[in-house]
Design a protein that fits this description.
13% of the residues lie in helices and 45% in strands. Strands 2-3-4-5-6-9 form a 6-stranded antiparallel beta barrel. Strands 7-8 form a two-stranded antiparallel sheet.
């Protein structure tokens, strides 16, 4: 939205960040009523914390990342492929390694995105720099966090997956 003023042609899904502590208790019911089907959930076991959910609407994949508060920041957790195991074995044993992307706490404002009013962080530039470096305005198809200075760090958490029918 910020760079392309539209969808990224080579990105097959939509990523959405939400403040975990501010979600309504009936979010799943609201998503289902809007036609979205919960497909997958990534979570941390101890203590139990949902970090990402994937919803399907027709052919659209919507990945929701839960922003978790820590000091003056929020962070999002992304599960990586297991070091050596296929996903079912990893899920049944030690889970998946994770990274955390730290983003500054901020208020939100509404902007126009393709004719729809959507909420974005007031500190959108700071968020995007924290996650993608100051190169975020340059389309880089095979972008790799290890090549740039970001606020993404390896995390001690292990993530697990739950699939829904």
């Amino acid at each position: 939205a910020m760079r392309e003023k539209g969808f990224i042609s080579y990105d097959p899904d939509i990523d959405l960040g939400v403040v975990a502590d501010e979600l309504p208790a009936d979010i799943h019911e609201r998503m289902e009523a809007a036609g979205f089907h919960l497909q997958r959930r990534n979570y941390i076991r101890e203590p139990y914390q949902v970090v990402e959910e994937t919803y399907i609407y027709r052919n659209l994949h919507l990945d929701i990342f839960f922003c978790i508060e820590e000091g003056d920041d929020w962070y999002i957790v992304t599960a990586l492929p297991h070091e050596t195991k296929e996903w079912k074995e990893a899920n049944a044993t030690d889970g998946f390694p994770t990274i955390r992307g730290y983003i500054p706490k901020t208020d939100f404002e509404r902007i126009d995105f393709l004719g729809i009013r959507v909420w974005v962080p007031v500190k959108a530039h700071e968020w995007l720099c924290a996650l993608y470096s100051d190169s975020y305005m340059t389309p880089i198809k095979n972008w790799n966090r290890k090549d740039y200075i970001t606020r993404i760090v390896d995390a001690p958490d292990r993530a697990y997956r739950q699939y829904f029918d």
